[in-house]
Design brief:
289 residues, 7 helices
């Protein structure tokens, strides 16, 4: 396992000034040796000029939020993260690794949730490289590694929770989005730790029932909503009836026996709980006829 270390590099502007001066010097020496017909001197100056030219290939530019991983004949020599113009050993191999924040959306996966219901799920993952040596040397292709492991984490998360909660304190993919996002980020981070990648955010972007059961689940949700609405209507109607009876008794507007109270309660509940507007009926008799 490789760990990142700072590479030795020198200011590019200083080395440019030095190498250009040496190049001028070696060219002058070569010309003077040639004029003097000094073969050994000319060979020495030519060798020096060749070395200077080779050294001129050691310049490199590091852009903001980028890095250069340096290798010398297969050996890791360090990483340059500081932006600027630099010079390093010209025989070093320089591999560019971006440190910018990146994001991608996983493919829509069809999986079974905790209770076996087929669902479709996808997530958005925001990440960046923080350890260049681990990203380059510990995995074959860190970008592909991030995508594959993120999709695997999303699938595993989907099988660990139900789509909808069936108990009051039960976590579910649809109802507990913040808690699920934290859990998803933690699991992806554990998988990508060895690749030198930091996960900044992970959140579900698509969540739906599989097409083959979407219709049945929609009817189930509609029935649940209707039952919940009816429950609220009945609770409100009972409260209004209680209030009406209490106010009539308090203000002594009318004296009602138990049978008349039952009839009044029945009529009020029908009016308050009905799906349609009530139709008035004229009663020409009494309750006792």
């Amino acid at each position: 396992m490789y760990r990142e270390k700072v590479a030795r590099a020198y200011s590019g502007w200083l080395m440019l000034f030095v190498l250009v001066g040496l190049l001028i010097l070696t060219v002058w020496g070569l010309v003077m040796s040639a004029r003097a017909e000094d073969a050994w001197g000319a060979a020495g100056w030519a060798l020096g000029m060749t070395v200077v030219i080779v050294c001129l290939t050691g310049f490199l530019v590091v852009n903001p939020n980028e890095s250069k991983v340096l290798l010398l004949f297969g050996n890791y020599k360090g990483t340059i993260k500081a932006a600027g113009f630099w010079w390093a050993n010209p025989f070093l191999t320089k591999k560019r690794v971006t440190l910018r924040i990146r994001n991608f959306e996983t493919a829509k996966s069809k999986v079974n949730d905790q209770i076996g219901t087929p669902i479709e799920i996808a997530a958005i993952v925001v990440w960046q490289v923080v350890e260049t040596a681990e990203a380059v040397f510990n995995v074959d292709d860190y970008e592909h590694f991030v995508k594959v492991q993120s999709e695997a984490a999303v699938r595993n998360l989907a099988t660990s929770y139900p789509y909808d909660s069936h108990a009051e304190d039960e976590k579910a993919l649809r109802s507990h989005t913040n808690e699920i996002a934290v859990e998803l980020k933690r699991e992806i981070q554990e998988r990508l730790e060895k690749a030198g990648v930091q996960v900044l955010e992970a959140r579900i972007s698509h969540l739906a029932y599989a097409p083959e059961i979407a219709g049945a689940m929609l009817r189930r949700q509609q029935a649940t909503a209707v039952i919940a609405a009816r429950q609220k209507i009945v609770e409100g109607a009972v409260g209004m009836v209680e209030m009406a009876l209490a106010m009539l008794a308090q203000k002594k507007v009318i004296q009602l026996d138990e049978e008349r109270k039952a009839a009044m309660v029945s009529n009020l509940l029908v009016v308050l709980c009905s799906d349609h507007d009530p139709q008035p009926v004229v009663n020409s008799g009494t309750l006792y006829q």
